[in-house]
Specification:
Number of strands: 11
Radius of gyration: 14 Å
Shape: globular
Oligomer: single chain
Order of helices and strands: EEEEEEEEEEE
Largest sheet: 7 strands, mixed
Strand content: over 45%
C-alpha cells in the first residue's frame, strides 16, 4: 500500500503562485508514476500533470503547460506542483495519485491508471 497526503492549498488572487506538495509513504518502491488531478464543483476530475517516479520525466495538460511545474524530491518521497500565474478557472480540489509498477503501458492522463489517491487539497483563485 501507498499512502498519499497533500498539502499547500489555499486562497490566492489571480496571477499569484501556490505550491502543492504530496508526501508518499509505505511501499513507495512500487510506484511507477505520480500525478496531479483536479476537480471543480459539478465537474469531472481532470488530469493536470504527471511525473515518472524513476526518471522524473514530466508531463502536463495543455491548460497548465507553461504555468505549472511538477517535480519530485527523491530524498523526501515528495512530489510538488508549483503553480504560477493562477487563474480563477484553476479553482478546484487538487488530488495527488500514484500508479503502481508492473503494467506494460501507462496512460498518465487517465484516472484509471492510478491505484492510490490522496484526500485532496482545496485551491481557490479569486479574480
Amino acid at each position: 500500500q501507498v499512502q498519499l497526503v497533500e498539502s499547500g492549498g489555499g486562497l490566492v488572487q489571480s496571477g499569484d503562485s501556490l505550491r502543492l506538495s504530496c508526501a508518499a509513504s509505505g511501499r513507495t518502491f512500487s510506484i511507477h508514476s505520480m500525478g496531479w488531478f483536479r476537480q471543480a464543483p459539478g465537474m469531472e476530475r481532470e488530469y493536470v500533470a504527471a511525473i515518472n517516479w524513476s526518471s522524473s520525466r514530466a508531463y502536463y495538460a495543455a491548460s497548465v503547460k507553461g504555468r505549472f511545474t511538477i517535480s519530485r524530491d527523491n530524498a523526501e518521497n515528495t512530489v510538488t506542483l508549483q503553480m504560477n500565474s493562477l487563474k480563477p478557472e484553476d479553482t478546484a480540489t487538487y488530488y495527488c495519485a500514484a500508479a503502481k509498477s508492473g503494467r506494460t503501458s501507462y496512460i498518465l492522463a487517465e484516472l484509471k491508471t492510478y491505484d492510490y489517491w490522496g484526500q485532496g487539497t482545496q485551491v481557490t483563485v479569486s479574480s
